[in-house]
Amino acid sequence: MYKLLSYLEKENVINFLMDLDIPAYIVSKDRVIVFWNKAAQKLTGYSPEDVIGKPCAKQVLNHVDRTGIPVCSTELCPLYQAIKNGIPVQVPFAVYGLTKSGKRRPLSIFGIPIKPNGEVIGAIELFSDAENMHSDMSLAIKIQQAFVPQDTDNVKFFYRPSVGLGGDMIYYNPPWVGIIDISGHGVAAALVSMLLRTIFDIVLSFDPPLHGVPFLIENELKKYQLEDIYFTAILGKLENDVFKFLDIAHPSPVNISKKEILNTINIPPIGFGFSEDYTEEVVNVFNLSDGKLLLYTDGITEEKTKNGMLTTEGLVNLVSPDDNLEMIYLKVLKERMSSLQEDDVTMILLQK
User: Fold this and answer.
1) CATH 3.40.190.10 holds for 2-131
2) Domain PAS, which positions (predicted)?
């Protein structure tokens, strides 16, 4: 800590930050607060005496994420990430701080490592009120969540985006069932998912043969001239307990009743212009009399465990025939090394 304070005094950082109109504070390498500026006091109500000398990991600032999970005492903390990796970390609008009045405020946070000569000795956090962004984001999340279907006797759904808004999409308009993983994350991917939903509605309303759907969707998508946008999917029709589907460069479905990975026929992702007017040979068929079929996005199989990525094989080893989707997610959660969910997690369970 002495090395940090000496450096800050020598470089006149304290005087600069004290007069800055942006709330800011500084922590040592072990995340003890050593400086708190006037703007930070104005926004939160905490005086320097309230916070200096206290580790932020002890919840003196009591930051939580959108779901109420503590941030300061976990790897979700942007200062922890900035100190650990030696690079700036931005969290635009997903942190909620407790002010001295007892009210929580949404905050936009930027963590910057302090590293003279390349050695990290502490970090600066700049933060600001994000009430307007919070309101807009909350409405956007509510809208997107409204499109997640309700469970039926035969089809169960699970949707957990990594940052509130997600690029995964569930399409359910019986008999059509689809799980779609769109390139990218966050707001942009969420907007693309809404566009794709409209395209799916248009194309599938004509009840085309299943093998012709990729070519038709590709042609519709081209009209919008979106660059570097593509998606993978499992898309099919569920009729009389038989699921006929296309595997569009997507992770292979799993028969959780028999703990088996399906060997499917794959076709290229949609969006690159590779889709053809396929024949019926690309259609996969699964009878639910053979077991429960789990569809999922790679956000779950690419979770980092102590042995590397979970993988589909690892998922098969975890699941049990009687597991519901929430139980599967919780099992994966126990294996995950980081407290941070880095990708959207979406699952569909088809059962007789």
Assistant:
1) no
2) 9-86
Q: Which two tokens stand for residue 58?
A: 């002890």
The boundaries of every CATH 3.30.450.20 domain in the chain are 2-131
Per-residue model confidence as pLDDT tens digits over 152-178? 999 999 998 876 677 899 999 999 999
Contact, 215 vs 248, CB < 8 A? no
Give me the pLDDT at residue 298, please: 94
Q: Contact 241/287 with Cβ under 8 angstroms?
A: yes
Third-level CATH fold of 146-350: Phosphatase 2c; domain 1 (3.60.40)
Token digits of residue 259 = 């703990």
DSSP-assigned states of every residue in 234-275? EEEEEETTEEEEEEES-PPPEETTTTEE----EEPPBTSS--
The 10s digit of each residue's pLDDT in 274-312 is: 999 899 999 999 999 999 999 999 999 998 888 889 999
